[in-house]
Amino acid sequence: RGGGVFLCVDTDTTGAHRHANIMANIQEVAKSGGWSVYVEKRAVKWSDATYQIHEIPPGTEISLEEAIGFYPEEHRRSIEKLVGEGMKSGRPWDAELQIKTRTGKKKWVRTIGHALSENGKPVRLEGIFQDIDERKTGELALRESYERHRGYEIALDTHSIVPATDRQGKITYWHKPF
Fold it and tell me: Minimal CA–CA distance to 89: which of 117, 113, 127, 128?
């Protein structure tokens, strides 16, 4: 209008979109996402992957109390202590705990957190949240199996006479009761 000058600025965001897609793919493969807690407001921000781990639609608004509420009672005190110390002193953490997702599924997760401070005071906590359920469930099953078999071994050694021989009948192993 009226012969004025028109200015236009164009920014190529192809690289930024490509980077965001790469990061989303990495989070999906690693079953991990990011999170932030703004200390003063107690406001929580989650990445899409963190929402998916909790089985919540991405973008759902969530409070710090609701986020901590995903931890069952036996793990809630631990996360409350970790987050509380992080908010108070900036102490970092790395913990394996269990959550109960929005659909009620119990799931093992790893949470790593640290504080960002201004003037020596924590202003934001941030970290990584990873679904480790498959690995942790396997570890617990392996430990249980080992303990059960170790119990059998102790019972066998205590109450049995157990020798072992080679093919020629020569004794190659025995335990004290034998």
Answer: 117
CB 130, CB 42: distance < 8 Å: no
As a whole number of angstroms, the distance between CA 109 and CA 97 comes to 6
* Main-chain phi, psi angles of 99, to 5 degrees: -120, 165
CA torsion, points 72, 78, 80, 83, in degrees to nearest 10?
-130
CA 95 to chain CA mean position, Å: 7
**Mean pLDDT value across residues 109-135:** 95
Query: What is the model's pTM?
Result: 0.67
Return the pLDDT at 31.
73
Amino acid at 39: V
The chain-wide mean pLDDT, for the chain, equals 85
Helices (H) and strands (E) in the chain, counts: 5, 7
Task: Tell me if 60 sits within 8 A of 67, measured CB to CB.
Answer: no
